[in-house]
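#dry-run=false #mode=assembly
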Amino acid sequence: MFAKVLTDVVRSVGLSAVMRAAGVVTRLLPIPRPTMMVGPGSSARLGQAINDFGHSKVLVVTDPVVSKLGLMAPLLQALKAGGTDFVVFDQITPDAPIAQIEKGVAVFKAQRCDAIVAFGGGSAIDAAKTIGLAAANQKHPAQLVGYFKGLRAPVPIYAVPTTAGTGSEVTVAAVISDPESNRKLVIADTRIVPCMAALDPTLMVGLPPEVTAATGMDALTHAIEAYIGHWGTAFTDRLALSAVGMIFENLPVAHVHGHDLAAREKMALAANYAGQAFTRANVGYVHAIAHQLGGHYHTPHGLALPFTHKYNHPEPSMPSKNPWHISCRLV
Ligand SMILES: NC(=O)c1ccc[n+]([C@@H]2O[C@H](COP(=O)([O-])OP(=O)(O)OC[C@H]3O[C@@H](n4cnc5c(N)ncnc54)[C@H](O)[C@@H]3O)[C@@H](O)[C@H]2O)c1
Ligand SMILES: [Fe+2]
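#status=ok
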């Protein structure tokens, strides 16, 4: 009993020292930011831009739903028109299970690709990031879990989000899942941040209301957790607050009037700002719990988030931030 208490004390002291050190590192770490294209038609413009980089073959990573909906047509037409060869891998399902990522790596290698376009929600984008890192380092995806586990940088990754939630187009993270152990796994590396991304609201008008709501809650949670956490900076605070304001104004509109392009574009931008905020300032308890629910019960990520918000009490050392005011409006 005494030994267990002692171990727990040592662990908690060690953990808090590690967390403090990590906080310092994330404040100082240079995090690349993708060149952004924003607005209706920007996915086609991204395709035109990719043509200028002279890749020999691009792997386009997406999911079967997005593929069937034909959302990639403008980008693929732009690639074709510009003479860029590409191959589509459209087998990624929610939470990017490891087995599908392995298949993607096999296609990447067999087709000798030298760039990746990640096209879809967070699951497709995170799968694409992992495929790139695994292929560059000849490692199994599970070996990349943690911080900076690959020696080599992936080939250039371009991203087109089709949900307004994860902000994965700007983050250092890739969340994948291991169905065998029922766990969600996080890969973190500044080199998996895409080099260019397009926020095209025309791709989001068909998002069902429930996916709109759940993914919007994800963006809101990123902003709140980045803001109330210990690692925020003036820069991340500004982005987080802007995102919260934009989400409160535009998520109800996008939810009810899915075809409202202005609301969809503002939500895509808000998710992007929240992604920039949390990729430096990190997330917190809400994500810790949501990842367990996602791993065990496959609860959609955004749906697993809201219930823990009410436990986000104000941090006494930061009364000026008044996080309780934000959290209260959610529950
Ligand atoms: N990398 C990061 O920084 C980060 C941040 C937060 C969450 N995540 C992870 O991202 C994943 C969730 O991503 P998500 O919330 O974007 O959902 P998702 O990618 O799993 O997609 C959800 C569903 O929406 C469908 N869909 C996507 N775009 C659509 C469109 N335009 N029209 C119609 N249907 C569409 C998909 O086919 C899928 O069925 C989780 O695994 C989560 O842990 C990653
Ligand atoms: Fe999230």
